[in-house]
Amino acid sequence: MINYDGRRFRNPDSDDGVIARYHQQDNLVWAEFSGGKVRRGALNGTCDADGILRLAYTMVLHDGEVVSGFARSEPEHTGTGLLRLREEWERYGPNSTTGVSYLEEVR
Length: 107
What we know:
The structure is a single chain. The chain has a single domain (8-106), classed as Avidin-like (Lipocalin), CATH 2.40.128.30. It has strands at residues 8-10, 19-25, 28-35, 38-47, 53-61, 66-77, 83-91, 97-106. Strand 3 and strand 4 form a beta hairpin. It has an 8-stranded antiparallel barrel with strand order 1-2-3-4-5-6-7-8. The mean pLDDT is 94. The chain contains no helices and 8 strands. It is mostly beta strands.
């Protein structure tokens, strides 16, 4: 199992400054993130033996919008020793949508 504790990730396609810091205890994983349009965000979920994350997320944007959803993140190993997460996500509510994005580990 991959240990996500203390790892930080960001979206390489965005310069919004959002960085998520992950924590892990056994198979329980959680993270907090902020920056750019996000005042505060949180993830809570589990990690399986292959390092795949299943996470619920919430965030409060600077305009006051509250966003929630679900993400399944699959790790990919890079040649640099850092992880890349392929996220399949679903946003709930009045602005519901789905998509795929990538997060890259930062040192």
